[in-house]
């Protein structure tokens, strides 16, 4: 079987969609080396290029020019005699030749429909048109959670039978045991407190970090934050200054994946009170790290967290506060929930996900 991927995000996105693309290709090549995997894009970057040492994975330089991804990439895949074209980020090419090729698209979320206030009018229209078109063109749609599947049915008016839920995993760094020396180096490099709670993710409105900061105000509990700052950060900064919390909240930058894995393991509690997610990879990262998670009782987050994570109303900072205080003071409860969470998260391991993907490809062929 020859599978072609739209590799734009694979080579050029540092986080979410890029990680999904790189992990997906890596695990397929690992567990199903009998197939050929083609990474299609106008150019490649060093990011993710290591996989090209695998003889079953090949970079295919696609036609250049404006809109070539939309109008030429599909035909380029057909010229390579690909059996399947997989769009990894909610899009499929618009033009195809007559040559038979099956089309799969992964849709991660439809947050722009649920929370239009976070997007410009123009972005919403473009996103909707692209996703709707891809959903119509695809032979099968992969939703990364049951929540996303429900949203695809509701907003894109797609029949349920066309959608398959296949969860995504997380980076292998979170499943590895780093050396004591590296753990010590990471602690010193980032001046980590002896005990702390952790929040990871882009610092934006929807992720709701301000309510975590409010929750720890007037407590002694240190908070470590890892994430890219947006305009929303200034709101948090104002609150921190006003309440003299500069020594309590630590923002880290330039954190590598291995360092992040260590920071997750060192945290007492992971707190993720997002208003809405397509899936919630940081929750999975925490559970693989054997760190108890406090997360929202909304969207797909209970799917990612399982029954032993602790759930809060993200709008209510006092609810967040009481759950943090309870776990902070109860080591045995933290450990019990972390152990149970680690058992639960095994279903997001590479092998079961690779098997589900391959079953889907075989089914549509």
Instruction: Work out the radius of gyration.
Output: 21 Å
Rounded mean pLDDT score: 94
> What structural class do you assign from the helix and strand content?
alpha/beta
3D shape: globular
- Number of continuous helical runs: 16
Uncertain spans, ≥5 residues at pLDDT below 50?
none
The helicity comes to 40-55%
Strand line-up across the major sheet = 3-2-1-4-5-6-7
What is the terminal separation in angstroms?
9 Å
Short description:
This protein has 365 residues and is an alpha/beta fold.
Describe this structure in words.
The chain has 365 residues and is α/β, with parallel strands linked by helices. It has 16 helices and 13 strands. The strands form 2 sheets. The protein has a 7-stranded parallel beta sheet with strand order 3-2-1-4-5-6-7, sandwiched between helices. α2 crosses α16, α9 runs parallel beside α10 and α9 packs across α14. The termini are close together. The model has no long low-confidence stretch (mean pLDDT 94).
